[in-house]
Amino acid sequence: MTRHALLMALGRHIDFKLCTRSVRLSRVLIIFISTLFMGGVTACSETEPVVDHTRTPQALKAHSATFEQAVLKVSDRVHVAIGFGLANSIMIEGDDGLIIVDTMETVEEGKAVMAAFRKISDKPVKAIIYTHNHADHVFGSQAFAEGHDVDVYAHESTAYYIGRVINIIRPIITTRSMRMFGNHLHQDELVNAGIGPHLTIHANSTLNALAPTKTFKDTLKTTIAGVNIELIHAPGETEDQLFVWLPDDKVLMPGDNIYKTFPNLYTIRGTYYRDVTKWINSLDLMRQMPAEHIVPSHTRPVSGHADIQKILTDYRDAIQYVHDQTIRYMNQGLSPDDIVEKVKLPARLANNPYLHEFYGTVEWSVRSIFTGYLGWFDGNSTSLQPLPKGEEARKMVELAGGEQALLNQVQEAMSKQEYQWVLQLCDYLLHTGESQAAKHIKSAALFKLAESESNPNARHYYFTQAKELKSNLKAAIYPKPNPAFLAQLPTKNIFQSMPVYLKAEDTLDVLLTVQFNLTDTNETYSIQIRHGIAEVQNYPISEPDVTITTTAQVWKEVSAKIKSPINAVINGELAVSSGKLALVEFLSYFDVPDFSSE
């Protein structure tokens, strides 16, 4: 039956079922169905092949040219430093001063960039702008201030998100970030980081994010050093993301909402849900700007309005395509594993150099979108209350005929170069005990996967976990903060982070209230440990069990474990109403990690 005959038959069926007054409705339905039908045919008729540019290590090596170190002139008063660290730093030269957009990941990298900028201009820095809260954009800010008080512009939520990473999830996000960015890899293993040459953070790095002093909610129009600047909230890679628009220069600075690789709609180092519909809307806002130059905070700038429009349009189309097709298959009841097999970028997008998978991937994005809408449950009843990993592993070992039989299967899979299957089988052995043979083979399989992987994030993660298994490498790197760094952190954040480090199992029978009187800030906080939870309040309470009197700065240093609490008592910097043993007991209930390298 032809498509026309099929549609006419369908129309007659609808007419038969509907009353006479609904004939017009039936015709509308025919048109609607026909449109869907034709749309499907059009989508399927695209014959241009997808050129797989990114699935070889050689392609990743070629991508390194994107980060060749340089300070490029974009317009008469805009220069961008590329290749000094993971992110770019942008200098806007005003009449009587400089504005710096994004400040690198460490003070050391910041100083190197500032030295390069000083070859262009000796004007004082009048302002710093953070496009968002990520470490590679804020932690080198002290270098650009050069010892002076400088206004720092940011979205109103940026300080919160900086504190969230530092105070709440620092241990796990640091470990996973070091794996993802390959901070422990040799030069032949670390080709580039996809959006920059490398993330240069090590135990001796200096981090200092100056606190924002000028914040806004939606938009901010201002003039700094004679330069008209518009800051526009544009959530995407982060909720606090903004873009910078120079209307007189027609220069657009999109932050991390676009760079020359498929975007990290989800990052494997871990993140809260990145709302991709907001990301699309933010790109649409940028498309409305008559930009002649676009200067991303990663990768190289682009000039020419037509080229910029195409890049922005294809970028937002790729994000929408992945979003919409994921939702489509979700609504058909498919699981994330099923959907990743179906959602692939069409050729016109996949072949765009700005959408090669050198950072984010379509597969990871699909999984994140699914979870963002529906949460962790994939819809299969088997997933509701799965067996504990150890029990499942024991049963799989038994099913295989015992540990040696399963290990034989692992070795056979390794010989067939079925490396992903090797990983999955090894995990069963590792969950049933300390199988040195399984650790060795899993490490070898990870090395093999890493060597053939072209996505830097996956490549680095494979290499690093292989080293962890082989040599007990500890991935986390904690640069020790200096007092100036801690001074920038809101005191409230320090106290509010403490409950997540409470050793609940040790405090189920504990009822203890401690009050903190901070003499330099005139603040009072209380922490009540109450049978396995810690409640924090920022007001005085009656009859606390222990009163601690100190300064906010001393407590920050004690909390960060760069100052001994006992020494602080002995030196008179900290007073405890019930004696120093009460302080030691209180602190023993918390499993707060220190900042030293592990």
Explain the overall architecture.
- There is one protein chain.
- This protein is α/β, with parallel strands linked by helices and 598 residues long.
- A hairpin with a 2-residue loop joins strand 8 (219-224) and strand 9.
- Residues 1-46 have low confidence and may be disordered.
**% residues in beta strands:** 5-15%
Number of helices: 23
Which runs of at least 5 residues are low in confidence (pLDDT < 50)?
A: 1-46
The N- to C-terminal Cα distance equals: 70 Å
Query: What kind of sheet is the major sheet?
Result: 7 strands, mixed
Shape label:
globular
Round the mean pLDDT to the nearest integer and report it: 90
Calculate Rg over CA atoms: 28 Å
Number of strands: 18
Q: Helicity, in percent?
A: 40-55%
Strand numbers in spatial order across the main sheet? 1-2-3-4-5-6-7
- Specify the structural class: alpha/beta
Summarize the structure.
The protein is an alpha/beta fold.
Short key terms for the protein model shown above:
single chain; 598 residues; alpha/beta; seven-stranded mixed beta sheet; six-stranded mixed beta sheet; 23 helices; globular; disordered N terminus
Layout of strands and helices, then pairs:
Blueprint: H1 3-17, H2 23-44, H3 57-63, E1 70-75, E2 78-82, E3 89-93, E4 98-101, H4 107-118, E5 125-129, H5 135-138, H6 141-145, E6 151-155, H7 158-168, H8 170-181, E7 214-216, E8 219-224, E9 227-233, E10 242-246, E11 251-253, H9 276-287, E12 293-294, E13 302-303, H10 305-331, H11 336-342, H12 347-350, H13 362-374, H14 389-400, H15 403-415, H16 419-431, H17 436-452, H18 456-471, H19 483-487, H20 491-497, E14 511-518, E15 523-530, E16 533-537, E17 546-550, H21 552-559, H22 565-570, E18 575-576, H23 580-588
Parallel strand pairs: 4-5, 5-6, 6-7, 11-12, 14-17
Antiparallel strand pairs: 1-2, 2-3, 3-4, 8-9, 9-10, 10-11, 12-13, 14-15, 15-16, 17-18
